[in-house]
């Protein structure tokens, strides 16, 4: 029984390490003294509020938040990716604050970023240890941490997920002589 559990842990060691590092990176964000009310953070919280209000008003893909700017409206979702507003709003189902929705989303972005780099490096190097190390280092890149904690640039932080995916697709095109997989097409 114990050896089977240990074998399963070793089988999923990459995922467990990526999850642990993501938790460690995200812990300061969940402290009560951490405020998302500065730099781009306040804009993204307002985007979430405006997108939620627009969806409640019946807009399917809200681009203009009609309640903003003395009811003249503001088109925040034209400037930023709407995905970074829709996905955090999923957590609003649990009746938590918009700020907490954004923090949970950032945690999940950390996990997805680590996994994307892990799969890319495992495909390139065929070495699991190098892939794990590369994913951890990629999650700890200072510019990425700057986006997460100082600038609160949520869409830019989210875009770090797609860099390894694009390079993985380019690698497959070159290595497989033009064969395109579903990953690069998306």
Keywords:
0% strand; 68% helix; globular; mainly alpha; 186 residues
Q: Specify Rg, calculated over alpha carbons.
A: 19 Å
Secondary-structure element pattern, one letter each = HHHHHHHHHHHH
Percentage of residues in helical conformation: 55-70%
Number of strands: 0
Number of continuous helical runs: 12
Task: Give the tally of structural domains.
Answer: 1
What low-confidence regions span 5 or more consecutive residues with pLDDT below 50?
A: none
Q: What fraction of residues sit in β-strands?
A: under 5%
Gross geometry: globular
| Terminal-residue CA separation | 42 Å
Main beta sheet: none
Specify the structural class.
mainly alpha
Mean pLDDT: 84
Please explain how this structure is put together.
The chain is mostly helical and 186 residues long. The protein has one domain. The protein is 68% helix and 0% strand. The protein contains twelve helices and no strands. Helix 2 runs parallel beside helix 8 and helix 7 runs parallel beside helix 11. The chain starts with a helix and ends with a helix.
Topology, element by element:
Blueprint: H1 2-11, H2 13-26, H3 41-56, H4 68-71, H5 76-79, H6 83-89, H7 98-125, H8 128-139, H9 142-149, H10 154-159, H11 162-175, H12 182-185
